[in-house]
Amino acid sequence: MSFWNDLAQGFNGQPVMPRPVPETIRRQIRRIRTWNEAKEVTDFLVDNFGDPPRTPVFRVPPSELYGPEYIVNTFAYYIPTSQVSESIHPPIDLSKSEILVGSIRYRLWARSQPIVSSANLEEIPENCQSIFAVDCFCVDRRFRSKGRKIGTWLLKYLHYFANTNAIPYAVFMKEGKPLAIPSWPFRSGIYAWIKIPPARQAISSHTKMPLNQIREDRALAWLYNYYNLQQNLLINSSQLVNKILKSSDNPKLYPMTHNQYNAFWYLYRDSVSLWILIRVENTNQIHTKGGNIGYFTDVYISHMFNSDKIGLSGLLYEIACHISKIHNYSWVWLDSELVVISQDTDTSKEERLNSNRELSVTGEASGLGWKVDGPYNWYGFQW
């Protein structure tokens, strides 16, 4: 936490220039620019991110780790093998001149105007603000708590990079308890998840429903109209909508993706007034019980559903089955405020996370198969 403590003064919204990163450290941190470099980071994350096999395996395709600076930046921290004096297990490969010990990514997350992610830099107006997300933050498990401050140096280097490239607005997500830092999360919630039974995947492939994948530009047009409509309606606390930096002090933001194969937009439209706009993202995580994990990052709902949460739960379950068949997801996560949670309070968290049970017929029919998971918190900041 030393990095965030150093920046405590910066949480009032004003950018803070970082203290200089020593030249020796700057030479050891490199921006990923090629597929081969990215592949090394991919393998590093598989081995070191989280605590597999207790937690899901994080496998980010190399293609998602590099690209134009205004879309995605991944940094890798190397140290010379000759400087490794501590005893570690498994031992390092001394035939190599250096070893990868840390990574961090800065990827496009949202924009303040509905401009597609694929737009060229010269096509983006100057008054359109890009917001980045910090993720893939990982330190080699063998070098944690060794006094090398690998994580701190990665954050300081990213701080320097963001300011020098005029992209200082960012967010990061913390699962579990909120951080002990002088900044409130702008968005908090509790996850809900569902296991997609293979039988339901097969059924959903033959079930016709008014759900279609749409391009990002069309999705942003829908979202633009949705935000404008909201301004003319009375908003109450029970409304079932996804809130992105929603406050009187923050503009509406338009979710972006840094890779066309990572996130997809779907529109469910049963009538003029009955529709749901969903952005689903591949988490690049493999569940501890096997199977890929999909995440409904954003769900925008017409006002028809305001008083029918049970019906919405069932419909989102059907939509999840349909999308999972297309993208090969075995599990789907979303915000629990959108659905009715199954009342299995006697089940431990580990059993809920790793449960491989099929949904009962009653649970499928009512849409009450969603299980509750832990909390999450999103923080916004200006470097």
Task: Tell me what you see in this structure.
- This protein has 383 residues and is α+β, with helices and mostly antiparallel strands.
- It has two domains: 186 residues, Aminopeptidase, CATH 3.40.630; 190 residues, 3-Layer(aba) Sandwich (Aminopeptidase), CATH 3.40.630.
- It is 25% helix and 28% strand.
- It contains nine helices and 14 strands.
- Strands 1, 2, 3, 4, 5, 6, 7, 8, 9, 10, 11, 12, 13 and 14 form a 14-stranded mixed sheet that branches.
- Helix 7 links the parallel strand 12 and strand 13.
- About 13% of the residues have low confidence.
Which descriptors apply to this entry?
globular; 383 residues; 14-stranded mixed beta sheet; Aminopeptidase; 2 domains; single chain; 9 helices; alpha+beta; 25% helix
In short:
The chain is of the alpha+beta class and 383 residues long. It is built from 9 helices and 14 strands. It starts with a helix and ends with a strand.
Q: Tell me the CATH topology of the largest domain.
A: Aminopeptidase
How would the global form be characterised? globular
- What class do helices, strands and sheet pairing give? alpha+beta
Biggest sheet features: 14 strands, mixed
Unreliable residue stretches: 8-12, 201-206, 234-250, 345-367
Mean pLDDT: 82
Share in β-strands = 25-35%
| Rg over C-alpha atoms, rounded to the nearest angstrom | 22 Å
CATH class term of the largest domain? Alpha Beta
**Number of DSSP-assigned strands:** 14
User: How many angstroms separate the termini?
Assistant: 15 Å
Instruction: Tell me which CATH architecture of the largest domain applies here.
Output: 3-Layer(aba) Sandwich
Q: Count the helices. How many? A: 9
Number of domains: 2
Order of helices and strands: HHEHEEEEHEEHEHEEEEHEHHE
Into which percent range does the helicity of residues fall?
10-25%
